[in-house]
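Today's session is about reading a structure prediction critically. Students often jump straight to the picture, but the first step is always the sequence itself: look for stretches that repeat, for charged clusters, for runs of hydrophobic residues. Only then move on to the predicted structure, which in these notes is written as discrete structure tokens rather than atom positions. Here is the chain we will use throughout the hour.
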Amino acid sequence: MALDEVARSFEYLTFLDVKPEGAVQGTALGEARFELTEGMAVTVWPSREAETLWIRLRAEDGPDAAALNARWTGWAYQLGVWKEKAFTPRLQELLEREAAPETAPAR
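Below is the predicted structure for this chain, in token form.
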């Protein structure tokens, strides 16, 4: 896992399903905060329910925060499980990737 993968968490973000946040019975995986443009920040709370990944979202500051929160509040959104590491990277994984020596291209 590289830091640039975390920075691209919102790229190609597709919601596969949606349900009331209280209906998600999974295990909380943590919290991630992303600082975006125009002073906006988005906090993400991912959770794992069986083989599915769900997130809750909250926007802060920025011109569109209130409109986004009006849509997001009270809902959980299902994502592809491949997004889990982007939203909840483990420090050890980031350190291992940064410490790994670069290999020379094959000739």
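Discussion point for the tutorial: The first strand starts at residue 17 and ends at 20.
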